[in-house]
Amino acid sequence: MDNKDYSILNFEMEYSGTTPPRRDQVTIMTDLLENIEEPRRVTHLLYRSNMSYTQLVKYLNVLVDLGLAKENKEPFHAYLITKNGKTFRDLIKPNKSSELAQKVMK
């Protein structure tokens, strides 16, 4: 092997020392509820949620069991937020347009 300059292959990656905070379970569930405002397939949720398939299915099952989301089979397999899910989401992550958030803030 020649003594060529392979320094480009031996680079050091800089590490800032800060990692993004981990999401807790409630944050993950509210993020999922925001993503299923309209019917979404599991594949689309997988791309948006930044989770593995196993984790996503676990959280979707929890949301369905709690009555915060429902699973639609027709016309395609998708998940959709329920009225209780919207209430839960608005209590956890109130936004300016939320009627419930405005009532709670008064």
Report strand order across the widest sheet. Answer: 1-2
Distance between the termini: 75 Å
Percentage of residues in strands:
5-15%
Class per helix and strand makeup: mainly alpha
Q: Radius of gyration, rounded?
A: 21 Å
Question: Could you name the CATH class?
Answer: Mainly Alpha
Describe this structure in words.
The chain is mainly alpha-helical and 106 residues long. The protein has one domain: Arc Repressor Mutant, subunit A. The chain is built from 5 helices and 2 strands; from the N terminus they run H-H-H-E-E-H-H. The protein has helices spanning 25-35, 42-49, 53-65, 83-92, 99-105, and strands spanning 69-72, 78-81. A two-stranded antiparallel ribbon has the order 1-2. A hairpin with a 5-residue loop joins strand 1 and strand 2 (78-81). Helix 1 packs across helix 4. It starts with 24 loop residues before the first helix and ends with a helix. The relative contact order is 0.13.
